[in-house]
Amino acid sequence: MDKIIRIALDGPSGSGKSTVAKKLSSKLNILYLDTGAMYRATALKALSLNIDTFDEEGVKTFIYDINLEIEYIDGTQHTYLDGEDVSERIREPHVSMAASNISSLKCVRLKMVEMQREIASKMSCVLDGRDIGSYVLPNADYKFYITASVDVRADRRFKELTLKGHKVNFEELKQEIEQRDYNDRTREFSPLVKAQDAIEIDTSFMNIEQVLGKVLSIIEK
Ligand code: DC
User: Fold this and answer.
1) Predicted TM-score of the model (pTM)
2) Any atom of ligand 1 within 6 Å of the Cβ of 180
3) Which of 4, 77, 133, 142 is least surrounded by CB atoms within 10 angstroms?
4) Is 103 in the pocket of ligand 1 (CB under 6 A)?
């Protein structure tokens, strides 16, 4: 592929966007940046320092110099915090809510967006997140907004966590997803929103291959 293309995949937690983004990037042989991992690592940093994830003044004490790096090993994104590979730790359930909380802080978003734009300026890529099409890459070549009902998303998350050996309660998971949706949609600065020119795909009754096929058919048109 000669021309640099940028693809934005936004949507709420558990909509399937990261799985689609991963497969899409490998199919097109372009970079995949999971921007949620960056907010998760930032949350982990605050937790490790015992700083409340809503305490903007506290978060400001580390955010400008945060040692957060993204590397790719065999095409898989690895997230490093202070030199440690935290790719697994950032997936723990308590980090999900902390990431949603900390991502509402303007100082955090400005820092993350700066890093994301820097990475996306260099090569063709697919970024998944909440504000990619609306704020991070408003000129992206393709924008998709991936959704699914809350029940379907909670069910997917339940299966994923159970497979990893976590003991989780479906109702609690559902409530947590609703709370994260609420946080992500109502925060003041760059909330989760469908960009005006994004194509919406409801994945509630679709499997990953079907979603991927739909996205690819639009890109290849
Ligand atoms: O996609 P995820 O569940 O790993 O994201 C974790 C949190 O990070 C999510 O609750 C909202 C936040 N986030 C964000 O605000 N903007 C992004 N571009 C990506 C994630």
Assistant:
1) 0.93
2) yes
3) 4
4) yes
